[in-house]
Each structure stands twice: as C-alpha cells, then as structure tokens.
Design a protein that fits this description.
This protein has one domain (7-220). 72% of the residues lie in helices and 8% in strands. The protein has eight helices and four strands, in the order βααααββααααβ.
Length: 223
C-alpha cells in the first residue's frame, strides 16, 4: 500500500470491527484451530454493511424517491439473497487452512484512518483518477451521465471482485459448490449492472449531485 493508493471504503460498525478482529486474532493465535463460529459471525454484518454502503446508504443520504430507488432496492434484494445464501453454505465447511487464508483476506480489507476502522478495496490508478475527475465534474455542475455510469460500473465491478471473488477464491470448492458460486456470481453481477446502468440514469436531477458526493465521500487514502 502506498500513500497515493486510493480505496473505496466504508466505516466499519463496532460490531463488524470487533468480529473481524476477533477472527483474525483467533486464527493468528491458533492457526490450526477451528474458528468457523467466529468466521460465520462476520458474514451477516459484513454483507449487510456492504449492501448498505452501495444501495440504501446513498438513498438514505439524499432521501431519494422514484424509479431509480425502486431499481436499486430491487437489485439489492437480489444480491442480498444470493450473497447470504452463498456465505451460509460455504463458510461453515471451511478448513483451518482456508480460515487462515480468509483471515489474511479480511486483514487486507481492514483499513485505518484517523483512528477509525474501515473496510475497503484499492482502486486501479486509472479508475481512481477517472473517478476523481468525474466526481469533480458533478460537483461543478457539469457532469455527464455516461461518464458517471462508466465510473460506477468500475467501482461496482471492484466490489464484486474484492468482496466476492477474492473471498471465495480462498476456498477449495468441489464441483457442486463451484457451480453454486458461478450461479450466484452471475446473479450478483447482473443485479449490480442493472442498478448502475438503469438506476443511476433514472435518478431525478436533484438527487444526482448529492448521490455523487456520497460516493466521493467513500474514497479514502488509509494510513
């Protein structure tokens, strides 16, 4: 991690921070132990806070209404069902080796800034630069919707990669579970794309600038 690396991150609740830290500490203290209960305890708050960050968070922040909100909430419902179902099935069967790998993964997602704990992932330098430029354009009142959709597609894809792909990538999956993961991933990707490509353009004009400001507030340079 370098000083110039820009992350998309949300502040972790006390509950999520405590459960991530407890899991990492338990694995580090007893690498060969079984810490499934601590791992499973992470998943519901982790998934709920990720979904809040990308869906209900911006809606609540600007008290938005209308077609765009319906599209975003519909996508969130689909993603929530797929993600929670997948986590419930996969995490309870993890080996100690898989738990060690997951502890490292969550440690990488855990960020700190000014004494606060965040959860997030790094943006590619080109996307970080593009996002900063597009967000500033909207702040100035001259943003273009096509540019915003492009940036948000990139951020959404990054969330799927870091919160889904890299999580299940630490697991040794059999044929059936590989099929389940592939199906869930396709569902989540389709719903995410729908939220960005249909929901954002449908947003009423008075909500666009504050929603962009909300997502800009998620950009973080950790310590």
């Amino acid at each position: 991690m370098t000083q110039s690396t820009l992350y998309v991150a949300f502040p972790a609740s006390d509950l999520l921070r405590e459960r991530i830290d407890a899991f990492i500490e338990a694995v580090n203290s007893q690498p060969d132990g079984n810490h499934v209960a601590r791992l499973e305890a992470i998943m519901d708050p982790f998934l709920d806070e990720v979904l809040h960050t990308y869906f209900t968070g911006p809606i609540d922040a600007v008290k938005a209404k209308g077609t765009a909100v319906n599209v975003m909430l519909g996508a969130m419902k689909v993603i929530s069902k797929a993600a929670h179902g997948l986590a419930s099935r996969l995490m309870r069967k993890t080996s100690s080796g898989e738990q060690q790998a997951l502890a490292k993964h969550f440690a990488a997602l855990r960020l700190e800034k000014d004494g606060k704990v965040y959860v997030g992932y790094p943006l590619a330098p080109s996307l970080a630069e593009r996002a900063s430029l597009v967000f500033q354009e909207f702040a100035n009142g001259d943003g273009q919707m096509a540019h915003l959709v492009e940036v948000m597609d990139g951020i959404s894809s990054g969330a799927v990669e870091n919160y889904l792909d890299k999580t299940v990538g630490n697991l040794e999956l059999g044929r059936i579970n590989r099929g389940l993961v592939a199906g869930a991933r396709a569902t989540i990707k389709k719903a995410s794309a729908s939220s960005v490509e249909r929901g954002i353009p449908a947003m009423e004009k008075q909500y666009r600038q504050p929603v962009v400001a909300y997502f800009e507030s998620l950009l973080l340079q950790p310590e």
